[in-house]
């Protein structure tokens, strides 16, 4: 019975992504998009197969930041999770982004980049000092108060010892929420005592091929909640990092990938959704309007979140390559019929089990 019920859940996840707007309106989960402030005009010459509609921008441009925030809000995004560690350039850009976000009534969180360019862990003392630096400057700033106090995701916790994580987080946990970035339920159990939850950055998952992906997310959500932590579940429109050494490609399927990943994330009982990403162009997980895709993925996200269609999108100057907003691969009637059939099957199974219990052919569970 349990195996059959699990199979039905898996089928529901495959069916429900078609038009999930009503579900997210009921749930009201915050949608937080990962946002990168590392760009210079020269960045667009390296490892890019697409470019933004706004052109070869620099992350030092407050007008670009403002237009990003306005476009994100129009698609139902609640806030940005900003990639940061303390350097003179990133500190300046973070302060600039915070100023713009305050003016636009938009929230910010942090993903702290605790691994270097070669994916090696930074010294724990450096991480601890950066967390204190951030706490001193932003702990009382309402723009970061997503859950009453600033939220910081520690990227790369799996590369650090529990002792090191505890040493860095303990001094700041009264004023900051510090989340891990573990990749499994077992990984989270290892660090649970030192963090306030987990945000899994799973940009390369493929729900067409990775049959256990939804169950993995559900197990991670359950593990985090057993420790009363916050669970930020990932979803992405696609992935292709071949230009920076990767090999896996997750096709976008004109928005269906985003819908399926959203449905699996919702099924894991998240406290918030982590959208990967606003502008990670090297891994091609971006939803920022671009030369290749136009504003197609803002349209898809707007449909998912149920956000109202704006009269004029802030990044609508060049939407070449955008798909038709209509014509999704399957309609609500198909999804509704499939769900109805599954519900009928489940009811019949429950009735059959009840008759077996009543007739004595199945023993009742012990109290």
Automatic annotation (TrEMBL):
<keyword id="KW-0808">Transferase</keyword>
<keyword id="KW-0378">Hydrolase</keyword>
<dbReference type="GO" id="GO:0004559">
    <property type="term" value="F:alpha-mannosidase activity"/>
</dbReference>
<dbReference type="GO" id="GO:0016740">
    <property type="term" value="F:transferase activity"/>
</dbReference>
<keyword id="KW-0732">Signal</keyword>
<dbReference type="InterPro" id="IPR026071">
    <property type="entry name" value="Glyco_Hydrolase_99"/>
</dbReference>
<keyword id="KW-1133">Transmembrane helix</keyword>
<keyword id="KW-0333">Golgi apparatus</keyword>
<keyword id="KW-0735">Signal-anchor</keyword>
<protein>
    <submittedName>
        <fullName>Putative glycosyltransferase</fullName>
    </submittedName>
</protein>
<keyword id="KW-0812">Transmembrane</keyword>
<feature type="signal peptide">
    <location>
        <begin position="1"/>
        <end position="23"/>
    </location>
</feature>
<keyword id="KW-0472">Membrane</keyword>
<dbReference type="Pfam" id="PF16317">
    <property type="entry name" value="Glyco_hydro_99"/>
</dbReference>
<feature type="transmembrane region" description="Helical">
    <location>
        <begin position="330"/>
        <end position="350"/>
    </location>
</feature>
């Amino acid at each position: 019975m349990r195996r059959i019920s699990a199979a039905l859940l898996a089928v529901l996840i495959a069916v429900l992504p078609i038009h999930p707007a009503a579900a997210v309106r009921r749930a009201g989960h915050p949608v937080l998009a990962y946002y990168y402030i590392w760009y210079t005009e020269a960045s667009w010459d390296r490892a890019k197969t697409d470019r933004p509609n706004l052109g070869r921008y620099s992350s030092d441009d407050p007008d670009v930041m403002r237009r990003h925030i306005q476009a994100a809000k129009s698609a139902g995004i609640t806030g940005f999770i900003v990639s940061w560690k303390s350097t003179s350039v990133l500190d300046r850009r973070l302060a600039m982004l915070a100023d713009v976000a305050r003016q636009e009534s938009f929230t910010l969180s942090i993903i702290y980049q605790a691994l270097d360019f070669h994916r090696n862990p930074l010294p724990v003392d450096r991480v601890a000092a950066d967390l204190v630096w951030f706490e001193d400057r932003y702990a009382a700033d309402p723009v970061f108060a997503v859950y009453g106090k600033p939220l910081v995701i520690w990227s790369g916790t799996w590369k650090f010892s529990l002792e090191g994580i505890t040493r860095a987080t303990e001094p700041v946990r009264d004023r900051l929420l510090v989340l891990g970035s573990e990749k499994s339920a077992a990984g989270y159990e290892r660090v649970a005592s030192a963090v306030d939850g987990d945000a899994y950055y799973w940009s390369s998952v493929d729900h067409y091929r990775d049959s256990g992906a939804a169950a993995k997310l559900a197990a991670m959500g359950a593990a985090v909640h057993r420790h009363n932590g916050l669970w930020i579940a990932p979803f992405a429109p696609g992935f292709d990092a071949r230009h920076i050494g990767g090999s896996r490609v997750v096709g976008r399927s004109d928005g269906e990938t985003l819908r399926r990943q959203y449905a699996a994330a919702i099924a894991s009982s998240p406290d918030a959704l982590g959208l990967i990403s606003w502008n990670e162009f090297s891994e091609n997980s971006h939803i920022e309007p671009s030369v290749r895709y136009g504003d197609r993925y803002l349209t898809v996200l707007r449909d998912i979140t149920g956000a109202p269609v704006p009269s004029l999108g802030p990044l609508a100057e060049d939407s070449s390559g955008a798909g038709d907003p209509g014509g999704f691969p399957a309609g609500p009637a198909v999804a509704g019929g499939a769900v109805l059939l599954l519900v009928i099957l489940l009811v019949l199974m429950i009735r059959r089990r009840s008759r077996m219990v009543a007739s004595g052919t199945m023993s009742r569970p012990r109290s």
